[in-house]
Design a protein that fits this description.
This protein is of the alpha/beta class and 259 residues long. It contains 8 helices and 12 strands. Helix 1 runs parallel beside helix 5.
Length: 259
């Protein structure tokens, strides 16, 4: 089984490739959180985790899912099941993978191999952050496919000890200082607005939101402000007329989702 969370589609693409290569089932963490998050493994079944890096940490929805996760093995022990993890990030993953693996270890799940994939940038809510140029976007996708193909073979062969991670120059500082502040204070849906004179009322923002945070009222989208938002910006990037903004800064920024 493969558990994944994805906003703008980068991680979903990678998870789908893993599902095809292993013939194992995909489970969306955001959907599974509506249920018990309890599963029974089949004999020899692999356990995969795929997630995007948010502020050099695993997204809070991923950590919530892991906190609730209950896995049952036929033998009574998870040690006989190969586990792996993959993350996607725009530049570096910091200590996000280690943080995930540490939390999984508390559940008795030991990650044997891990991979980070550099994918096109989608977070554009800070003054210095933009979507990649078309050339950079395509170069990242091409390299990510090459890196993923290697990892697919690793997972298919159940190889342990494989770790290919782009940590960055100061991973601890980015994850435990900057990332800690980012994930505590900057993950909010309260800055989302919609230009009523531009919005076509198509409903795509609500459809694409992975956590169901958007409802329509008076013909326009409204965010629920119930702490479910992960700031993945899927609503912003999928809007066909660029009517959604996050504060003032995104009005002149590009859009991206995995096609």
């Amino acid at each position: 089984m493969i558990f994944y969370f994805s906003g703008t589609g980068n991680t979903r693409w990678a998870a789908q490739q893993l599902a095809t290569a292993t013939a194992e089932q995909l489970y969306s963490m955001s959907d599974e959180l509506k249920g018990t998050c309890e599963y029974t493994l089949t004999e020899g079944e692999r356990i995969g985790f795929c997630f995007p890096v948010h502020g050099w940490q695993p997204p809070h929805i991923v950590r919530k899912f892991i906190g609730r996760l209950k896995l049952h093995a036929p033998s009574g022990s998870l040690s006989g099941h190969y586990a792996y993890a993959l993350c996607t990030c725009g530049d570096s993953c910091g200590m996000a993978m280690k943080m995930l693996c540490d939390e999984l270890a508390l559940k008795g799940i030991v990650v044997g191999s891990c991979q980070s994939l550099l994918m096109p940038e989608s977070y554009v809510c800070l003054p210095f952050m933009y979507t990649d140029t078309p050339e950079r976007e395509q170069a990242k996708k091409l390299q990510a496919r090459k890196d993923l193909n290697v990892f697919l073979q690793v997972v298919a062969e159940r190889r342990g000890g494989y770790s290919q991670l782009t940590l960055g120059l100061t991973p601890w500082t980015f994850s435990h200082v900057i990332g800690a502040y980012f994930n505590r204070y900057m993950i909010t849906d309260k800055k989302f607005t919609v230009d009523a004179d531009v919005c076509t009322r198509c409903g795509r923002c609500a459809k694409e939101c992975p956590v169901g945070d958007i409802e329509f009222s008076g013909g326009l989208p409204h965010w629920n402000h119930d702490d479910s938002c992960t700031c993945c910006l899927s609503c912003y990037h999928h809007c066909p007329v660029h009517a959604i903004n996050y504060g003032k800064i995104t009005r002149k920024r590009g859009q991206y989702y995995y096609r």
